[in-house]
Amino acid sequence: MNSPNHMPADRSLTAPTSGCPMALSRGRVGLDVADEISELRDGGRLGRITTAFGQEATLITRYDEVRAQMADSVVFNVAGVPSPPALVDGGFDTESVRRRRTVGNLIMLDPPEHTRLRRMVAAWFTTRRVERLRPRVVEIIDAALDEMERSGPPVDLVAMFAKTVPITVICELIGVPEELRERYRRRAERAVSASAVSTPLDELRRLREAGWVSRELIEYHRENPSDDIIGMLLREHGTDSYDDGITDDELVGLANALLIAGHETTTQMLSMGTLALLRHPDQLALLRDDPSIVAGAVEELLRYVGVLHGGFVRVATRDTRLGGHRIHAGELVVPALTAANRDPRLLTDGDRLDITRPPTSHVAFGHGVHFCIGAPLARMELREAFPALLRRFPGLRLAVPDSELEFTQGTTVYSLRGLPVTW
Predict the structure, then answer these.
(1) Contact 148, 161 (CB under 8 A)
(2) I need a surface site. Which of 184, 226, 246, 263 has the fewest CB within 10 A?
(3) Residue 180 three-state SS
(4) Which UniProt key words apply to this protein (predicted)?
(5) Residue 225: is it exposed, middle or buried by C-beta count within 10 angstroms (0-12/13-18/19+)?
(6) Is the residue at 396 inside a domain?
(7) Helix/strand/coil percentages in the chain, nearest 5
(8) pTM of the predicted structure, to 2 decimals
(9) 160 in Cβ contact with 151 (< 8 Å)
(10) E-assigned strand segments in 299-418
């Protein structure tokens, strides 16, 4: 078996790979896919990348191959993915640390553990259940817009709207009391900013902080029974029975995973989706003047924007093929989601934003068993937020030159540092 960080020399009958490993975020400018990654996809080549956690992996860029990889959780699983170099090099790659990183975290689990935990919370994220939340989400959106209006232009849309709405929604759904929400928000932001240059102490600090905050939340709900997700899990599954129970450690991991997935990604879709509309005033006008097209507009923005640099790292459990590419056992792979969503084999004009486009498949929410459990909630928030924003501020525009906008690089979530707007 090859070591996970070794690219086999024999790649007969496959397209060649790129040269030295690159950071997945390298070369990305604004909302576009990095030229180097687009060239890999269009040239039928695999890439070599360094992930946000310092691991070297093979990059998959074409839509069909990305879907095939994410659909097969047996051949491509998470159990064999090595710990981040920051932990290994620092001598902190212990069983207790590995468990703290993975237990209860749906992203870091394979079936059947993943299936068991996901089933416990899946009912909270069905389209029907999410629809019952719509009136409250509308209230949260309106309150954020009221505050923007009171503040007066210019305002930072990221801070005053894009962050405020998702964190409030997910905290109410999970059951995070007001006094803990700021700590949870900071925790989510730090979790997605982990990078290849993180030190072992950085990684341990993130893990410990996550445990402290979530354990405090669990104790709060034991003393204050409730009807939110944490309250339900404690009431219906709070036993040590493996088949139908959930441990405190699993609750900690699950709460953190739901928080991060339900907050930071939606925040950046609101931020960068708004920027995409501002950069395409004809598309903005279409949505502002006819909010009935919002469902299709949101799907197109999800496809076009690309909040995640890539999907999550997986390891090949045996020799296999993706398309014409040979993947060897032990090889780490990462799907390039944004590149896949703009694949010319999927759309001939994938680099163009068209919110009136007929329904088009995309992998913005992933695919397979790890398809984003919160996708119905995210879609509903976005479908309410964009029309409400444009209805309240029909003259919305950038308050600074576009060239002054800053994006984060080298993190799991691609994000805007700020979006100054006026109206």
Answers:
(1) yes
(2) 226
(3) helix
(4) Heme, Iron, Metal-binding, Monooxygenase, Oxidoreductase
(5) exposed
(6) no
(7) 50, 10, 40
(8) 0.88
(9) yes
(10) 314-316, 320-322, 325-327, 332-335, 397-398
| Cα 339 to Cα 259: distance, rounded to the nearest angstrom | 26
Check: CB of residue 385 under 8 Å from CB of residue 141.
Answer: yes
Neighbours of 371 (CB within 10 A): 12
Nearest Cα neighbor of 355 from 296, 278, 289 is 296
Closest C-alpha among 321, 284, 322, 320 to residue 301: 284
354 burial (CB, 10 Å; 0-12 / 13-18 / 19+) is middle
Q: Which two tokens stand for residue 185?
A: 């928000």
CB 55 within 8 A of CB 313: yes
Tell me, yes or no, whether 35 lies in a domain. Answer: yes
Give the number of other Cβ atoms within 10 Å of residue 50's Cβ: 19
Query: How many distinct structural domains can be found in the chain?
Result: 1
Which token pair is 384? 């309410």
Alpha-carbon gap, residue 299 to 276, rounded angstroms: 13
Is residue 100 domain-resident? yes
Q: Is the peptide bond before 154 cis (omega within 30 degrees of 0)?
A: yes
Tens-digit pLDDT profile for residues 234-246:
988 876 555 578 8
Question: Phi and psi (nearest 5°) for 413?
Answer: -100, 130
- Taking only the tens place, the pLDDT of each residue in 25-40 is 556 778 989 889 999 9
Q: Which structure tokens are listed for 337? A: 């989601």
Walking along the chain (423 residues) 10 residues at a time, the average pLDDT comes out as 36 41 63 90 90 83 96 94 72 64 84 93 92 97 98 97 94 88 72 52 57 75 90 82 75 84 89 98 98 98 89 94 93 94 95 96 95 95 99 98 86 84 98
| pLDDT given at position 412 | 66
What sign results for the dihedral spanned by CA atoms 188, 189, 195, 199?
negative
Q: How many other CB atoms are there within 10 angstroms of residue 369's CB atom?
A: 17
Pairing mode, strands 155-156 and 420-422: antiparallel
**Structural domain containing residue 279:** 22-391+406-414
How many other C-beta atoms can be found within 10 angstroms of the C-beta atom of residue 320?
A: 18
Is-contact 114 79, C-beta < 8 A? no
As a dihedral over the C-alpha atoms of residue 328, residue 41, residue 297, residue 288, rounded to 10 degrees, the angle is 140
Dmax of the chain from CA atoms? 64
Token pair belonging to 372? 């984003």
DSSP 3-state assignment of 421?
strand
DSSP state at residue 76: E
Per the domain annotation, does 4 fall within a domain?
no
